[in-house]
Inverse folding.
């Protein structure tokens, strides 16, 4: 049985939402299941729309680098901060416990 991992989303209005999820779930699916404002997931997690853009906690350094298709979508959205990722491409694990994930504007 998997343990629940609790972390916080900051939605597009700046409001915090503490959520619980299981290791292996994507940030996009967790956000949409919890009605986090600013995460729509229009493509259903296919890395095709950019409606699940987030900023990862800087301490989550173990996350793999984005693939080129993800980088293209983020670039098309006009972000050049280098901290943005697509939530559909990030599966959570125990390292997310207590972290904060900010929805991109």
């Amino acid at each position: 049985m998997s343990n629940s991992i609790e972390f916080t989303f900051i939605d597009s209005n700046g409001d915090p939402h503490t959520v619980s999820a299981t290791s292996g779930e994507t940030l996009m699916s967790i956000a949409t299941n919890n009605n986090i404002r600013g995460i729509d997931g229009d493509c259903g997690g296919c890395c095709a729309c950019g409606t699940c853009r987030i900023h990862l906690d800087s301490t989550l350094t173990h996350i793999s680098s984005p693939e080129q298709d993800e980088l293209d979508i983020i670039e098309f959205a006009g972000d050049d901060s280098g901290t943005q990722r697509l939530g559909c491409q990030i599966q959570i694990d125990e390292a997310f416990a207590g972290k904060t994930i900010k929805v991109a504007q």
User: Anything to note?
Assistant: Residues 4-103 form a domain with the Ubiquitin-like (UB roll) fold (CATH 3.10.20.30). The chain has one domain: 4-103. The mean pLDDT is 92.
